[in-house]
Design brief:
- Two copies of one chain form a homodimer.
- By secondary structure, chain A is mainly alpha-helical.
- Chain A has helices at about 1-10, 25-35, 50-55, 60-70, 105-130, 130-150, 155-170, 175-195, 200-220, 225-245, and strands spanning about 75-80, 85, 95.
- In chain A, strands 1-2 form a two-stranded antiparallel ribbon.
- In chain A, strand 1 and strand 2 form a beta hairpin.
- In chain A, helix 5 packs antiparallel against helix 10 (about 225-245), helix 6 (about 130-150) packs antiparallel against helix 9 and helix 7 runs antiparallel to helix 8 (about 175-195).
- Chain B binds a DNA duplex (30 and 30 nucleotides) through helix 4.
DNA sequence: GTCGTTGACTGGTAAGACCATTTTGTGTCA
DNA sequence: TGACACAAAATGGTCTTACCAGTCAACGAC
């Protein structure tokens, strides 16, 4: 442990010379270990930044960078004038949409519940907020999809762009980044399923296009309710199509 | 856009006075947006830290903290003596609920839109699927919250457990992990807001308890519609309370 | 006792400095 | 002319000092 050994060192670490790792990383790791192990429990206040400086024998800049890592991980929260507090024991900071196998129907249902929830809400917001530019981008994706299908391609890339354009029309950053994550994950499965049945799904692709058109129309009209319903219908049908592919 | 406007500002932002949000967060967000949008593509070198300082008119400490966020997100990598390089375009492999500052009302609204969407859907699912054991766990958190308030504590930890117990009652792994992530982030803000007004919010805490009771009753009765409505009301009121704290 | 006020402490930010490494440019020598 | 060695500039990593604004508890006036 390069850090703790430095605690007892009488050498005030003259220069930045012979260290190996990234100083803030070491400290962040040490602190998060203390939190995970329970040495620092939720609600506790960390030592002040200046105290940590002397403890670890580093400058305040380093301590602050270490703390900023913990902050962005959601382990601690700083309150100006008061202190830095432990808010969370383990870092469930990042949400990862679990990859589910196409072959597992149960988990498909589970995943669809979340996907439908998010996408329907996003589409409803988009109906309320979409600008003419948003609408143009959505329309472009829609046409691109049609063209792709006519060109005997799957058009899944255009499909993705269609959904992404809608989500961007919410003008809500949280929705945008969450949907980006969800759809990027979901797309893998869809593509996989689709490519298995390249030959006999012409009718299904038409149905998809109709559903997309319905969403677009609702967005164009600014009809929140219709948009939400169209999105829900589309996603539920999409799930249904995947089930067909599986059979 | 507080950042870009500052770029053209001739005022060298004298003191730390009248700004709203966390400076490094703003810059990190701006940079990651540039990366996601393709203004900076993979392999590109960012401007040097010192250049970024002048661009954003902030100190190097701020720029470094912003960059450290991007680094821990895996978007960029720094090479000493050379520069900072974009290593990844989108962080779609993981969703991170962006930190927003309590002081920024616009971003609060944005965040609440997503939080309400998810929580309401989760509560509706929970009403459908909760087992007696789930119900017991929720009840326990409810009572714990009451006890905490009576003991002159904030009870935010118990509040969190209440919501978590509900989400677990959905028995949907995707909802569980997403909500865990969202609420852990949101809790920081709530706690921060609450602690500011420890003395004069006894009436508000009572209101919270009533809202929680309404949710519990609906879950107990298995009434999906009532549960969703109670959850929506609770969250919207919670947002309203945060606004009060801000004023 | 209650209520303001004060002052020490805390995180947030700024500015300037030094170090080690990388990169680039330059000049020397073959 | 080409390859090589060296120096200078640029860059990230770290340290130091300083000021600001918010928090909070102790103290004193009423």
């Amino acid at each position: 442990m390069p850090i703790s050994s430095r605690l007892t060192s009488d050498q005030p670490r003259k220069s930045t010379g012979s260290r190996n790792g990234h100083l803030p990383d070491e400290i962040a790791q040490d602190l998060s270990a203390k939190i995970a192990s329970g040495v620092l429990s939720v609600g506790d206040r960390l030592p002040s930044e200046r105290d940590l400086c002397t403890q670890y024998a580093v400058s305040r800049a380093v301590v602050r960078e270490a703390l900023s890592q913990l902050k962005s991980d959601g382990l601690v929260a700083a309150r100006a004038g008061s202190g830095v507090y432990v808010t969370q024991r383990d870092s469930t900071n990042a949400f990862r949409f679990q990859n589910f196998s196409v072959s597992d129907l149960n988990r498909l249902e589970e995943a669809m519940e979340l996907l439908v929830t998010i996408e329907v809400a996003a589409t409803r917001l988009a109906a309320k907020r979409r600008t003419p530019e948003d609408l143009k981008k959505i329309k472009r994706a829609l046409i691109g999809m049609e063209y792709a299908i006519a060109s005997d391609r799957l058009g899944d890339e255009e499909d993705y762009q269609f959904h992404q354009a809608i989500v961007e029309a919410t003008h809500n950053q949280h929705f945008i980044s969450l949907c980006q994550h969800l759809e990027a994950s979901a797309r893998n499965i869809i593509r996989q399923a689709r490519s298995n049945t390249k030959t006999n799904h012409a009718d299904l692709l038409d149905a998809v296009q109709d559903e997309h058109n319905a969403i677009y129309d609702a967005l164009k009209n600014g009809d929140e309710k219709a948009a939400a319903e169209a999105a829900a219908r589309h996603l539920q049908n999409a799930a249904e199509r995947i089930r067909i592919y599986l059979a």
